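To illustrate the input format used throughout this study, we show a single complete record. The first block contains the structure-token representation of the backbone; no residue identities are included at this stage. The design step must infer an amino acid for every position from geometry alone.
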């Protein structure tokens, strides 16, 4: 990297701090930025600064938003009676991309993990209970991941919501389409057996 001038070396070092970007990729990106027109580089720099200035957590669901309340929470086409609880924004985006859900979300900002010092007060659980207490929600869908922390978080939330006037459901999980049973882990197979359904 010594063959590059200091300005390019600094750019490569900064690009390497991005997730999934190693030295070779950082070099390719830096050389691309050297070649593009100045207006394109300025547009990229502006976009990065703009994100840092504008993006915040939605005050309702705790997803990412440019405004106090996000587009999903304010959309009149979404079913306000369905509330899908997820761990983080990435899970919400995955569900949105599937096109299978048309309700609203509540993002916990993590999962319960005593080993890592993450307890109920570190998550958006109090806010979830407040939303349910406001009324209008028919069903709370627990869509945390199926690892141990996600399962224990879902169980904890279902117990908290047990005496509330809402239906509490858990997303189904099991063997993926095209999956070979020989290579499916035991927890997934156990869940698949527990959530089996009748054909026809």
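Output of the design step:
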């Amino acid at each position: 990297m010594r063959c590059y001038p200091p300005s390019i070396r600094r750019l490569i070092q900064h690009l390497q701090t991005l997730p999934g970007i190693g030295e070779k990729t950082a070099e390719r990106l830096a050389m691309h930025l050297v070649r593009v027109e100045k207006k394109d580089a300025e547009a990229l720099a502006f976009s990065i600064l703009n994100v840092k200035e504008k993006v915040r957590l939605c005050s309702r669901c705790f997803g990412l938003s440019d405004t106090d309340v996000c587009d999903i929470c304010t959309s009149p086409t979404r079913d306000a009676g369905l509330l899908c609880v997820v761990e983080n924004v990435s899970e919400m985006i995955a569900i949105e991309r599937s096109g299978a859900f048309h309700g609203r979300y509540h993002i916990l900002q993590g999962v319960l993990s005593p080993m890592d010092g993450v307890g109920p007060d570190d998550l958006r659980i109090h806010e979830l209970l407040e939303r349910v207490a406001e009324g209008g929600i028919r069903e709370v869908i627990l869509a945390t991941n199926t690892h141990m922390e996600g399962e224990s978080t879902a169980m904890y939330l279902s117990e908290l919501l047990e005496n509330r006037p809402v239906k509490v459901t858990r997303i189904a999980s099991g063997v993926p389409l095209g999956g070979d049973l020989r290579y499916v882990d035991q927890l997934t197979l156990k869940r698949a057996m527990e959530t089996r359904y009748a054909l026809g």
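Structural context for interpreting the output: The CA atoms of residues 79 and 103 lie 4 Å apart. Strands lie at 56-57, 64-65, 79-86, 103-107, 139-142, 167-170.
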